[in-house]
């Protein structure tokens, strides 16, 4: 079963190298991978100023990201986080040495970024499992699909109503 424990920046717990870190921002969750000695690897928008300010709207619309190695406490700031290896039951984690080697190779690289298809959660799960997955993106895609279907249904109802009114006259 996946290990989930909640911590704040002032009480960080004991993540192990290769652990997935879920950081709770006001409007979304940001994901990082723990490297060890207090450091994480994560993606941040290329054109953003200080690396720890990932909570801006720029991150939503950015198409490119930079892979950064940062102190966990700096990235978390005043937010909270927990260790969340939630996919361990579905995907086998790669050996820790391979996870860290792959992560270190990508530090300071520019990578493509897409909120729904290639986001921070996809990035860290690709490092840990060799497979990029994101429940957060699946939920967003599902919500977009529902809104689109509902809009289509309302449009169709409006069209049918206007046609039925036309036939009455």
TrEMBL record:
The keyword Transcription does not apply. Keywords: Hydrolase, Lipid metabolism, Membrane, Transferase, Transmembrane, Transmembrane helix. GO terms for biological process: N-acylphosphatidylethanolamine metabolic process. GO terms for cellular component: cytoplasm. The chain crosses the membrane at residues 140-160. Residues 20-136 form the LRAT domain. One of its GO terms (molecular function) is N-acyltransferase activity. Belongs to the H-rev107 family. This is HRSL1 enzyme.
């Amino acid at each position: 079963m996946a290990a989930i424990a909640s911590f704040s920046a002032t009480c960080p717990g004991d993540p192990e190298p290769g652990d997935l870190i879920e950081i709770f921002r006001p409007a979304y969750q940001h994901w990082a991978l723990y490297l060890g000695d207090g450091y994480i690897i994560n993606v941040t928008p290329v054109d953003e100023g200080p690396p720890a300010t990932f909570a801006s709207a720029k991150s939503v619309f950015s198409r490119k990201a930079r892979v950064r190695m940062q102190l966990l406490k700096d990235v978390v700031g005043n937010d909270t986080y927990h260790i969340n290896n939630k996919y361990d039951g579905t995907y086998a984690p790669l050996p820790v040495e391979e996870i860290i080697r792959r992560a270190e190779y990508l530090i300071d690289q520019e990578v493509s970024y897409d909120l729904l298809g290639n986001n921070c959660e996809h990035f860290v799960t690709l490092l840990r499992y060799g497979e990029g997955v994101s429940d957060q993106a699946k939920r967003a895609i599902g919500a977009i699909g529902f809104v689109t279907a509902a809009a289509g249904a309302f449009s169709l109802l409006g069209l049918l109503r206007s046609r039925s009114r036309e036939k009455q006259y």
